[in-house]
Amino acid sequence: MLLLPTGMVAPTQRTIPDFVLERPVTAAEAVAAGATRGAVYAQGCSDLFAQFREGLDCRTLVSLERIAELGAVEWDGSTLEIGAGVDHHAGSHDARVRAALPGLAAGWGSIATQRIRRRATLGGNLMARRTRYEMSVMLSALDAELDFLTLDGTVTVSPAALWDRAEPPGGLLRTVRIT
Hints:
Elements: E1 20-22, H1 27-34, E2 39-42, H2 48-53, E3 60-63, E4 73-75, E5 80-83, H3 88-93, H4 95-100, H5 102-108, H6 114-117, H7 122-127, H8 135-141, E6 145-150, E7 153-157, H9 161-164, E8 172-178
Parallel strand pairs: 1-3, 2-3
Antiparallel strand pairs: 4-5, 5-8, 6-7, 6-8
């Protein structure tokens, strides 16, 4: 009987290379930590292990869980701003999202399974850049704008622009804005 090393056929967590964990408390600190080569932003992590199995080069994992502003939702009567760290369950049940865009709330509430909806975030759904993930399609239909915080300031792109580039614009996806 031939014995294969762990992870040769079915990769496990044991195949994840060592990395440095950064736990910033502000978006600016996260951007600084994320500017290093091999840095990866993570919050809900529902897709992270799949990316590791696919060869993700992660030398620094920048945890976004302590950054309160990424979980904010604001509605001023004309503009809806949703933080990239809002999970699917919270976003689809948020009273401001339901008031501003009930169709978005309904569609958002049907993404994935209940277990994933409670962990997976708006930003993770977009930044995974997987064709089977629904959020970029819904936000493109709403002419949403994505604000990325970079070392040089804020860069705003459309959801479709994530697909028009070989790489995302860089920086930290901070907010999705719909007017």
